[in-house]
Amino acid sequence: TPAATAAATTTTTKQPKTSGPKLAPKLAAKPTPKFVPPRRFATTHTSAVPATFCQDAALSSAMASPRDDLDLQVPANGLPRSSLPPLCSTDSVPPPKTYVILNAANIAFEYGNRFTSVNRFDWEGVRKALRYYRKMDVSPQFVCQSRIAKRNPVPTDLVAYMAQAPVVDGHRDVDDLIGIRLAMMYKCQLVDNDNYRDWMGEDKTLSSPEIREWLGSAVDKGLKVGFIFDCHGRFCPLKDPVKV
Predict the structure, then answer these.
(1) Residue ranges in the chain assigned as alpha helix (H)
(2) Is the separation of the CB atoms in 100 and 188 below 8 Å?
C-alpha cells in the first residue's frame, strides 16, 4: 500500500547529522625551506661571527672570485672594514706642523735628581715636558733607550709619544743619534741638556758630515734647546718652539 511504502522509505533513508563538534580540515604540512648561506654579506656589524658560519664562508670564498674573498674578512679589532683608517705610504710627508724631539733619559734624570732622589729616573719629568708642548700646540715625541724602557716600564699614557732607539752593540748613546736624526728629518728642535760635543768630532763612529753640520748650526738656529725644572717642578725650555 502507499502508506506502507512511505513508512519503509522513512526508515531506510539516512538523515545528515545536525549536532556535534565540527572537525577542522586537515592542512597539508609545508616543506621546510632549505637554508642557503649568502655568497656575499656586509661587514657593517660589530658582533662576533659564529664559527660555523665562518667555516661556510671560508668554503664559499674558495669557490668565489678573488674580490669576494676580501668581503669575507673580518678585522681582528671587530671594526667594520669601511671604518678603518686608510693606509698611507711610509714615505709620505707629514702635514705642515711644528714638531719637537725630547731626550727622555736626560729629562727624566734631571727631574728625578731634583725632586725625588739622587740618580733617580722619573717619567713625571717627561710627562711635564709633553704637557708643556701640547699646550703650545706642538707635536712632541721622545726618544728612549731600550735598556731604560726595560728597567723603567713606560707609562701607558706616554707610549703614544715614544720613539724607542734600537740596540746597537758597543754603542750606549744610540738614543742621541736617533734624536739628532729625527730633529733633522722633521726640521725641528731637539730638547736636551747634553752639549753633544762628542758627536761633533770626526772620530765618533756613528756620526756623519751631515750630523756635524746640523749640530754646528743648531744652536744659532734655535734648534738645540736646553731646559730646566723650576722650584715648583714646572718644565721650562730655554727657547720657545720655532717653526722652520
Answers:
(1) 2-12, 51-63, 66-71, 104-115, 123-135, 146-151, 174-186, 209-221
(2) yes
Pairing label, strands 227-229, 235-237? antiparallel
Residue pair 212/200 in contact by the 8 Å Cβ criterion: yes
Please provide the DSSP assignment of 79-146 as one string: --GGGSPPP--TTPPPPS--EEEEEHHHHHHHHHHHHT-TT---HHHHHHHHHHHHHTT-EEEEEE-H
How far is residue 38 from each of residues 33, 48, 49, 63, 79, measured CA to CA in Å?
15, 17, 14, 13, 21
Residue 92: pLDDT over 80: no
Distance between CA atoms of residues 36 and 208, nearest Å? 67
Q: Taking the chain, what is the end-to-end CA distance rounded to the nearest angstrom? A: 135
pLDDT at 63: 39
Cα–Cα nearest to 108, from 117, 99, 97, 96: 117
Which of these, 12, 207, 201, 237, lies nearest to 103 by C-alpha position?
237
At residue 40, does pLDDT exceed 90? no
CA angle 58, 62, 67 (to 5 degrees): 95
Mean pLDDT score of the chain: 73
∠243-142-193 over CA atoms, to 5°? 80
What is the largest distance, in Å, between two alpha-carbon atoms of the chain? 150
C-alpha to C-alpha distances, 168 to 144, 172, 208, nearest whole angstrom: 14, 8, 17
Closest to 208 in 3D by CA, of 217, 216, 219, 200: 200
Residue labelled with grid coordinates 714646572: 234
Burial class (CB in 10 A: 0-12, 13-18, 19+), 227: buried
